[in-house]
């Protein structure tokens, strides 16, 4: 059956896609423009949502989905999932609100489990968790909330804003892939570079983060995002996790390894707390 006419009932989980069939789908998608890729996803992928932190690439995707929706005389066809880490810049939170209003898009917000403010999170996990145990931090603010979102919303496929020009782990990403949990991931702008994204933003008057005008290209949590150097030699994401040997936040790493590492760290902390409690009783 031609991939262009694939029925969305034929893909219930990425695990059902063989490596060979996935490669053939990618060969087909490489021939399409980003707008055509997104249109294909709307017509063929099951349970599709867009995950976004409202970076420039994600904003282009939101705008393209909006144009497709208007063409079809329908409301915004793909809902958004936004993971509020509790450490976003105020400008990012303002942008999320503006996008929701501009595009009339369903926006589902997920925060770390059992907390709703930064103060609550830090009372539970410490002020510098992001620095002293980055894997646990990533699991708590991104990985676990994302899995919770996928389960609650019955998400089978997600559209991401990853591009090859962002380098690091993204340098060779395909357009369509399946992660270790069976989640289908679509990267419709995988081949675009920063200039193509920025040109689209300006040409289509897409709302964007005010920090971009200050020189930021990639914007994450406020504690670990810095403005790239003025000489323009930094890569797009070099302002993220300054001084740390990482290029991804955990969402696009092996989920089971991330969860196992978190559980091991949690067990170790509990054992240390028990030892401290025992030592206190002995000396009391």
Automatic annotation (TrEMBL):
InterPro entries: PAPS/APS_Rdtase (IPR004511), PAPS_reduct_dom (IPR002500), PAPS_reductase_CysH (IPR011800), Rossmann-like_a/b/a_fold (IPR014729). One of its GO terms (biological process) is sulfate assimilation, phosphoadenylyl sulfate reduction by phosphoadenylyl-sulfate reductase (thioredoxin). One of its GO terms (molecular function) is phosphoadenylyl-sulfate reductase (thioredoxin) activity. Residues 219-243 are annotated as: Disordered. Pathway: Sulfur metabolism; hydrogen sulfide biosynthesis; sulfite from sulfate. This is Phosphoadenosine phosphosulfate reductase. It comes from the Eukaryota. GO terms for cellular component: cytoplasm. CDD domains: PAPS_reductase. The keyword Oxidoreductase applies. Keywords: Oxidoreductase. Residues 50-226 form the Phosphoadenosine phosphosulphate reductase domain. Coiled coil: none annotated. Belongs to the PAPS reductase family. CysH subfamily.
